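Weekly modeling sync, notes
Attendees: AB, CL, MP (scribe)

Item 1: holo prediction request
CL wants a bound-state model with cytidine-5'-monophosphate before deciding which constructs to order. AB pointed out that an apo prediction alone won't tell us much about the pocket. Agreed to run with the ligand included and paste results into these notes for async review.

Input as submitted:
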Amino acid sequence: MISREKPDVPGHGQDANRTLPAGRRKGEAVVPVITVDGPSGSGKGTVSRCLADKLGWHFLDSGALYRLLACAALRERITLDDEAGLAALAGRIQGAFLQSSSGQERVLLDGEEVTLTLRTEACGNRASKLAALPRVRDALLDWQRRYRKPPGLIADGRDMGTVVFPDAVLKIFLTADPEERAQRRYNQLKSLGKNVNLGDILEEVKQRDRRDRMRVIAPLAPAEDAVIIDNSDLDIDGTLRVVLDRARRIV
Ligand code: C5P
């Protein structure tokens, strides 16, 4: 069961449960969350999706929300220096994450197809820039927490275990050397027929890492209680085995 629709009532500043653990309403049973954080190219997206499928839990790709916002900002010509405008935009966009019968994922922004645009480096870089703005992060908080629904949630991102779901039952931090992550991205783009340069990709990976790790708010970092897995020498199947083994110990 993979649920990627935008849950009802996006908005912000409306969460009456701020004093309760993230996403939990008074009297409700705790819905378990497993967080998978890490830098780009660590394989966390693939691993998280597989984990959600295996456990039959919902799935949140938080990076896609930042990318959607980047895409919408470009469309509405809201620049990065307009923090209030970007935060307001986050409260009104509608994202739909659909899956075709063949398993292909499609993403709509206010009804418009943006699947391919969302995956471009330009969109990822822009997303990483607006992700450094505190009001933008705050505006996306409730939207992310509304994905927490029974029987459980796998949340993929940068600050899932530290900020969004600090009470997660298991926190995984996936990482790999920048060189290895750049090589993976290079292979992926090559297989799509793109003309790319490994050196350029490595530079972009390092730049994005720096921006994500150095930002003042919710920087990319493992939670204190996270299990850190360096998968530089592991393929996706190997990584999934390690993560599944951890998950099975607690659910
Ligand atoms: O994971 P993905 O590459 O799609 O994320 C795009 C950008 O969004 C990241 O580089 C990061 O700066 C930002 N992001 C974030 N916090 C998250 C998820 C993504 O800051 N939880």
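Recorded for review: The first helix runs from residue 44 to 55.
Action items: CL to compare against the apo run; MP to circulate these notes.
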